[in-house]
Design a protein that fits this description.
Order of helices and strands: HHEHEEEEEEEEEEHEHEHHHHH
Distance between the termini: 29 Å
Number of helices: 10
Mean pLDDT: 80
Largest sheet: 7 strands, mixed
Helix content: 40-55%
Structural class: alpha+beta
Number of strands: 13
């Protein structure tokens, strides 16, 4: 059955090439579209444990307040609170370089930037008195995994390197409420113009363990504080919480604190806007491909009528004929997927189209499988109907003429 299907694929190679090219286009666009969605959702999903439609974001501008926010006091003072997330973000100096250090609680923030090499700081083996750290590629010192660096009383062990094209959580100092969304919690490493000595992302566990005495000072805290309320919190409880914060710390809604409901809704709209152009293009190409598949399948049956008749004389039946026809289309799909992956890697590696993201995950596999199954169904549906209507005797009579 497989041999006959492969023979049919070879015989119809010229006609198959056009279909393969169209299928490659569909797979390429699908892979880049899914990659774009996965990348954006990785950013949104990375903070989803503390950022949803029931929460509060506060600009923790402690330098301009009489008193810094206190996590323990907030937990006692507020009602229906699930999590309070405050990342650490401070600067150290070494040899005239200003180095930014950041860290967040992995129990609250699951996002991790991709590493060029090495291990994530929380995953690497922890040593007594040493803080595991991932550093930016442009760090002027500590060039190897395992290097120990002493900076302003902190002892860091390098466990990995992060690329300059990655987004970093918890370092941003710019937050516009009118445009706030999931990206507002991140900052591109390449745009950290004030960091001329690089960035160090450190283990939250190690930082808490060895320098808890220093972390109580406001200068070590990030500018943004997220308070995640319970999903079933009432409007009255939200108003109570905001009133408590205003009266206790002087923060006011609209100026330095904002509810996350509209921000969260806008985040999803923004993700869809980012991938919508590629989805539209993908839909158009799929429609064209479906038409081509139906036409090609019909033509293929007409061209293969004589062979099908011979197979029937030799003891074959239409059910088996349908099977090796399906093998032919499956070979086309597999060849198209292989070519599409190669094209995607080439486009991405050569940076032919700026802004494209390429990754391979389980979601990519599901998307490719879904598209392949749908295309195979359309490719064999009409030929299957036509085969069932064809009488073997009529094929033999036509061959005698």
């Amino acid at each position: 059955m497989i041999r006959l299907g492969f023979s049919e694929f070879i015989r119809n190679m010229k006609r198959n090439m056009l279909i393969i090219i169209q299928m490659v286009a569909v797979y390429v666009i699908a892979l880049f579209t899914v990659s774009a969605f996965v990348e954006q959702y990785r950013l949104l999903g990375g903070i989803s444990d503390v950022f949803d439609d029931t929460g509060l974001v506060i600009i923790n501008s402690m330098a301009f307040k009489d008193e810094m926010l206190n996590r323990d006091e907030l937990e006692d003072m507020l009602v229906s609170v699930d999590t309070i997330e405050i990342p650490y973000n401070f600067k150290l100096n070494k040899n005239g370089y200003s180095i930014k250090v950041t860290s967040c609680n992995s129990k609250n923030i699951s996002y991790r930037p991709e590493l060029v090499k090495g291990e994530w700081c929380e995953d690497a083996t922890h040593e007594e008195g040493v803080i595991n750290a991932v550093i930016s590629e442009d760090m002027p010192f500590a060039k190897e995994i395992g290097d120990i660096v002493e900076i302003d009383g902190f002892t860091f062990k390098i466990t990995g390197f992060v690329g300059n094209n990655e987004m970093i959580y918890g370092t941003t100092s710019r937050f516009k409420y009118t445009e706030a969304n999931y990206l507002s919690f991140y900052e591109p490493l390449s745009e950290m113009t004030d960091v001329n000595g690089g960035l160090i992302i450190v283990s939250y566990e190690d930082l808490q363990k060895y320098h808890q005495d220093k972390l109580c000072f406001p200068s070590y805290w990030s500018m943004l504080l997220i308070i995640d309320f319970a999903d079933d919190i009432t409007d009255e409880e939200i108003e109570y919480n905001m009133k408590q914060i205003t009266e206790r710390y002087g923060y006011t809604q609209g100026e330095d604190m904002v509810l996350t409901d509209e921000m969260y809704e806008y985040s999803w709209r923004l993700i869809m806007l980012k991938i919508m152009p590629m989805l539209m293009l993908l839909a158009v190409i799929i429609i064209v491909l479906i038409v081509s598949l139906v036409i090609s399948g019909t033509i293929n049956v007409l061209y293969e009528r004589r062979n099908y008749g011979i197979y029937f004389i030799c003891g074959n039946n239409w059910k088996n004929t349908f099977k090796f026809s399906l093998v032919n289309w499956t070979i086309m799909a597999v060849a198209s997927i292989a070519l599409a992956v190669g094209v995607c890697v080439f486009i991405y590696s050569k940076n032919l189209i700026k802004g494209l993201i390429l990754s391979f995950t389980g979601i990519h596999i599901l998307a490719i499988l879904g598209i392949t199954v749908a295309m195979l169904l359309f490719a064999v549906f009409i030929p299957y109907i036509k085969l069932r209507r064809i009488q073997p005797v009529s094929i033999l009579k036509e061959n005698d003429k």
